[in-house]
Amino acid sequence: MIxxxxxxxxxxxxxxxxxxxxxxxxxxxxxxxxxxxITWMSFGTTFATVRVITHGIRDGWLPWGNVSAGGEHxxxxxxGIAALAGVGLIAVRGDExxxxxxxxxxxxxxxxxxxxxxxxxxxxxxxxxxxxQGRISVDVSLGVLSVLGAYLTAKPFWHEIxxxxxxxxxxxxxxxxxxxx
Length: 181
Known about the structure:
Blueprint: H1 5-28, H2 31-59, E1 68-69, E2 72-73, H3 76-93, H4 96-99, H5 102-117, H6 119-124, H7 135-153, H8 155-175
Antiparallel strand pairs: 1-2
Helix pairs in contact: 1-8, 2-5, 2-7, 3-5
């Protein structure tokens, strides 16, 4: 039986866990590591999201279609190039606070993923996005690369996050709470 205090205790415990993750990030990550971690995580998230969206559009289970301008299909690498151009503009301005901002790292990771996802198209200058040749290996390679990059960028941080989360789950189990929510 769940009492009214159990959900509140679980919420408090979850807030404490998130606070400890933030403290760990502040303690374990240099500004460079934080930017690299955000870059790799946004790369992996964007790459996976784009793959899901493109499959959804092609297979018809998403309610929208491709983006076009003036009757021409806009490939997502176009948006990636625009994102990288924006990041480059920020970088050449020389403002260190702006260049080190998490949004810049996220934009860089997203833009790079959008371009990498259509690399075969750019390489051959043919729309071979759905061709079987190499798609599986490219998908797997980029997925592994993004996970590995995020891990190696901040290895000590991830190890401490693992220990903190393990203690949180064990404490929740001892209290009879579900760690998942």
